[in-house]
Structure formats: C-alpha cells, structure tokens
Design a protein that fits this description.
The chain is an all-alpha fold. It has helices at about 15-25, 30-40, 45-55.
Length: about 70
C-alpha cells in the first residue's frame, strides 16, 4: 500500500499541514510544529512553504456516513 500525503482534518492548528506531515512521517505532530516554527522564525521561507503546502497538499477525506 502506497502512503499519500494529505492535510489533516482532525489534527490541525491552522490548516492541517503539520498534522498531515507528521502522520505521513509517523512522527509526533508537536515535533513537526516546533521545527516548522523555528524555521519560520529564522527564515521567512517557513511561512511561505506553509502557505504553498496549504494550497498544494489535498485535504484528507473522511468516511463519514450520514445515518438518519
């Protein structure tokens, strides 16, 4: 089975990029968020990369069944 990168819909603070990346890399989302925050503080490229990832990475689909 091939892994795919998606933005998380359940583990998100802003747009779900870090949560999705953490799930894809099988890491703790807090570690990804801290690394991303440090990169963003020292180089504005982190903010730009987050914005680009938000636009490019699709949001994960949830299998919600509507029961009436």
């Amino acid at each position: 089975m091939q892994k795919k990168l998606y933005r998380s819909t359940t583990d998100k603070k802003v747009a779900g990029v870090c949560g999705g990346l953490a799930k894809y890399l099988n890491m703790d989302p807090t570690v990804i968020r801290v690394i991303w925050a440090i990169v963003s503080l020292f180089a504005f490229v982190g903010v730009i990369a987050y914005f680009v990832c938000t636009l490019i990475i699709p949001e994960e689909q949830t299998d919600i069944i509507d029961v009436q």
